[in-house]
Design a protein that fits this description.
The chain has helices spanning about 5-25, 30-55, 60-85, 90-115, 125-155, 170-190, 195-215, 220-240, 245-270, 275-280, 305-310, 325-330, 330-345, 360-370, 380-385, 405-410, 460-470, and strands spanning about 315-320, 345-350, 375-380, 390-395, 425-430, 450-455. It has about 475 residues and is α/β, with parallel strands linked by helices. Helix 16 (about 405-410) links the parallel strand 4 and strand 5 (about 425-430). Helix 1 runs parallel beside helix 9 and helix 6 (about 170-190) packs antiparallel against helix 7 (about 195-215). Strands 3-2-1-4-5-6 form a six-stranded parallel β-sheet. The longest helix is centred in the first third of the chain and has 33 residues, at about 125-155.
Amino acid sequence: MFSPEIIKYAIDLVAVLLLALGIKGLSKVRSAREANRLAALAMGLAILGVLFNASFQDGIALSALLWIISGTLVGGLLGIFVAHRVPMTAMPEVVALFNGCGGMSSLLVAIGVALFPVASTSEALNVSLVENISIVVSVFVGAITFSGSIVAMAKLQGWLSTPNWIQSKFRHVINLGLGVLALVAVFDISRGGLDGLWLLVVSSVLLGIGVTLSIGGADMPVVISLLNSYSGIAAAAAGFVVGSQLLIVAGAMVGAAGLILTQVMCKGMNRSLVSVLFGGAIGQDLGSSANQGAEYTNITSCSAEECALTLEAAERVVIVPGYGLAVAQAQHTLREVTRLLEVAGIVVDYAIHPVAGRMPGHMNVLLAEADVPYEQLKEMDVINPEFPATDVVLVLGANDVVNPQAKSDRSSPLYGMPVLDVKEAKTVFVIKRGMSAGYSGIKNDLFELANTSMVFGDAKKVLGDLLVELKELGVGRSV
C-alpha cells in the first residue's frame, strides 16, 4: 500500500499538471473555457489533497477540518454567485478583488504560521531561515497585494478618487518612509520579535495603498496584471511557509505569467513600469501638453441611416471595441448587426488593442460573451496591415488606442504608443456620446480627418438604430 504522504504528493502532481494545462489553454479564446475548468479542477484536487493529508496527521482536530471544509464551501458559493451576477463592465473590479483575496490568503497563512509555529526546535537552522524569509515575503507582498487591489477596485468602481496631495512628489517620501519601516520590521522579525510582524503588516498595507492611490485609470490594465503577479509571488512564498509544493509551483506560474502580461501591457501603452508605479497616471503628466483641452474645429457627423447605407455597400468591415462598448452593454446588439453583415457576404473582423478596456483581455471577454467567433478577433499587429484594404471601420467607445498622434506628433504624450491604424481605412465611423477626451486627456486627431464621421449617442442605442436601418435596407434578409 502507498503511504499517505505518497498519495498526497501524487494528488499534488496531478493538480500541478492540470493547472499548467489550464494556464496554457487560457492563451487561446477557443480553449479558454475548458482551460478554466481544468484550473478549477486542479484547485479542487489541491483542497482534497490538503484534507487527505490532514486526516492522517496526528494532532489535527476535527474542528480544523470543519473550518477547511466550511471555508471551501463558502468561497465556492461566493465564487458562483459573483460569476453569475457581476456584469461584464464590472469584471475589472472583480479581477482586482480576486487578486486582493489571493494576497490576503497568503498574508493570513504567513501570520498563522508565525504566531503558531509547527516546526520543532531540533530542525536545522537553514530550515528556520527559509521559513522566516518566506514568512516575511508572504506578509510583505501579500499585504501590498491586498491593499493595492482593494484601492484599484475602489477606483475602478468610482468609489475612490485620487486626492490632490497624493499627486505631489511628497508621496514618494511617504512611500519611502513606509519602505524603511518595513525593513525595520524585517530586522525585528529576524531576531524573533512578534512586534516586527505587526509593524510589517501595517507598513506593507499602507505602502500598497500609497503606491496604488496615485495611479489613474489609464494605467489600470498594467496595475491589475502586476497585482496578479504579486498574488502569485505571495502564494509561492506561502507555499514555502507551509511546505506545499503545489502552492509553490502554482504561485510561481501565476507570478511569472503576471510579469509577462505586465510587460505586454507596458509595451502596448508605451509606458515603463517605473513610470506607472512612481509617475502617476498618464493624464497627470499632461499639464503642459499643448493638445490638452484643445477644441475641435472640423468635425463631420452623420446619422445611423447614413452609416447603414455605407455599410451596405462595403465588402470588408472592421470593428474596434473600447470601454464605451462595455459601459453601454452593447456587445449583444453589436453581434446582431455583424450577423446581418456576414449573411450579406460582408467580411467582418474585430481589431483588439492590448490595452483596450480596463483590464488585460477585457474586450476579448466582452465579445466572447456575445458569441463572437474567436477567428474574427485580430490582434493589433495582425489587423494593422489590413486597414488600407478595409472599406468601413466602426470605432465603438475607443479613443486613445486609435489616436494618430501616437505616430505623427512627436510633442504628443501618446507618441510612440502602438495604436490601431484605423485612419488608413476608406471610411471611419466613430460611435461616441460626445467629444470628451480619453484617459490621456488630449484631443483625438482621428475625429477631424476627412474620412471620419461621428455618430453621436449611446453605443447600444446607435447600434440598435443601425440594426433597424440595415433590416429596412434588406441587408441579411435571409436571417
